[in-house]
Design brief:
mainly alpha; two-stranded antiparallel sheet; 11 helices; 4 strands; 5% strand; transmembrane; ABC-type transport system involved in multi-copper enzyme maturation permease subunit; membrane
Length: 336
């Protein structure tokens, strides 16, 4: 039997792999169920009730405005004439009918076109989490149990063994991520059909969703490779989990606090969630409110735009460094 086939079978036969995939499916199923039960499909009766509520709110606002609101607004403007450059009649114009739209009083409804991108990010995050843990356990458990030593007696070429394991992880992650992603898409399409709307979907929209899904798959694979390589370097699953915890607790919170105290600009650019959002949404705009001069009135802060290309470059560098170190470490250290 080829080593690649053996590693692929070992990956999918492991109970831990099955349990982690099941955990991911359960989490996504719970989210889909929550979306289903918290949304409803609007009908004529719902629209009529929303319009009636909007009319009531408008009438209540008009009543308050005529009785007290207008007088209070005009008195405030006269007492503080420098607070606004607009004329009194424009500021104190009172509520208008168009300010009370019926759709603002409609119950929540799942719009597939508008809300599915966020659901793709949810899927990518969960796939990334389970792939990270599976990848770390896949190689770390074998180092810990002595299985790696036995395997290297059968196939003493260490780089071939490590490549087979890493390739099996990547291939397996692609399979379970795409399979779960297809079911996830179908489930949310069903929710939108019975509890919302699927209008506005075009071939271009589907293409955009597909590209976003590919970026999500890339994120999941990146996290899986990171977990795998960290466990390879430490020769234990706990190595990957410990580094992940340290990055979250020390780097994310600690560095964020230190940079804020030091008055460093673009603090968000140093935080991992920012880069993940930029990767999934193609860009993320960071605003520097420290550049504002509020004494002049209107504030237009300076901005810094992170793109998916920036984040992709960082991800590629991290993967290249960790994979290179893993192969170097595998080739130089004794097995025992």
């Amino acid at each position: 039997m080829s080593i690649v086939r053996a590693e692929r079978r070992r990956l999918f036969k492991r109970r831990f792999t099955k349990y982690m995939i099941l955990v991911g499916i359960v989490i996504l199923a719970a989210i889909a169920a929550g979306v289903f039960f918290t949304n409803s499909k609007p009908g004529p009766e719902t629209l009529a009730a929303a319009q009636a509520q909007a009319d009531r709110q408008y009438e209540d606002s008009i009543g308050y405005w005529n009785s007290r609101g207008k007088a209070e607004c005009e008195a405030s403007m006269k007492a503080n004439p420098d607070t606004s450059k607009m004329p009194v009649e424009e500021v104190c114009r009172g509520p208008r009918k168009e300010d009370f739209q019926a759709e603002w009083y409609m119950p929540s409804s799942f719009d597939f076109k508008d809300e599915f991108p966020a659901m793709i990010t949810v899927w990518a995050a969960i796939m990334g989490l389970i792939t990270f843990v599976i990848g770390a356990s896949f190689v770390g458990a074998e180092w810990n149990s002595g299985g790696m030593m036995n395997l290297l007696l059968w196939r003493p070429k260490r780089s071939v063994v490590l490549s087979a394991k890493l390739g099996s992880l990547i291939g397996g992650a692609v399979v379970w991520s795409l399979a779960i992603g297809a079911v996830w898409t179908a489930a949310l399409w069903f929710v939108a059909t019975v509890r919302g709307t699927t209008t506005g979907m075009t071939s271009g929209t589907w293409q955009s969703f597909g590209l976003m899904g590919l970026r999500g798959l890339g994120l999941a694979l990146t996290l899986g490779i990171i977990g795998f390589t960290l466990a390879t370097l430490g020769r234990h699953t706990a190595m990957a989990l410990g580094v992940a915890a340290a990055v979250i607790v020390v780097f994310q919170f600690g560095v964020g606090i230190v940079l804020n105290l030091a008055g460093v600009r673009w603090v968000e650019a140093y935080l991992l969630p920012t880069h993940m959002i930029a990767w999934m949404d193609k860009e993320y705009i960071i605003e520097d409110y420290q550049s504002c001069n509020f004494s002049s009135g209107e504030c237009k802060p300076e901005t810094l735009t992170l793109t998916w290309v920036n984040t992709g470059t960082v991800m590629a560098i991290i993967i290249a460094v960790l994979v290179g170190l893993s192969y170097w470490n595998m080739s130089r250290r004794d097995v025992a």
